[in-house]
Specification:
Elements (H helix, E strand, L loop, with lengths): L4 E6 L2 E5 L5 E4 L14 H23 L6 E10 L7 E11 L4 H15 L1 H5 L5 E9 L1
Parallel strand pairs: 5-6
Antiparallel strand pairs: 1-2, 2-3, 4-5
Length: 137
């Protein structure tokens, strides 16, 4: 089992460090007592989701011999209005450039979101997850 440690730096700025030894800095808005100097924790979570599924998709496409030239993932979220304001919907839009077939990309996205990405699968049953894609040569 991995261990992550999160420490208060100052104000509302926190430093998180995972077992890899790499760090993530998080902060809150000025109105919440922070200095607005880093990503919010939910932004870090959504960025982690994008990184997780992005790594899966690239890995799967490489195995299919159709590596993309580039990949960008836009993530839109909807949250409940009442506290704890949980995530209710996520939409991931994958923008791929290169000679990637639509069939391969659809399969790679599906496998990532339903089988391989632990972050996406942690949202299963909690939030509705949808996806779309754009392929540009």
């Amino acid at each position: 089992m991995g261990k992550t440690v999160v420490k208060l730096i100052k104000g509302m700025k926190f430093l998180g460090q995972g077992k890899s030894g790499h760090s993530i800095i998080m902060d809150s808005a000025l109105a919440s007592g922070g200095s607005d100097s880093a990503a919010r924790p939910m932004e870090a979570l959504f960025a982690s989701l994008g990184g997780c599924t992005g790594m899966d998709v690239v890995s799967i496409l490489r195995k299919m011999k159709t590596e993309p030239k580039s990949l960008e993932i836009e993530i839109e979220d909807e949250r409940a209005t009442d506290y704890p304001k949980v995530v209710t919907k996520l939409h991931l839009n994958y923008h791929v450039t290169g000679k990637v077939s639509e069939e391969n990309l659809k399969k790679a996205i599906h496998l990532s979101l339903t089988k391989y990405c632990p972050i996406a699968n942690s949202f299963a049953g909690i939030a509705e997850i949808t996806s779309s894609y754009v392929i540009k040569p």
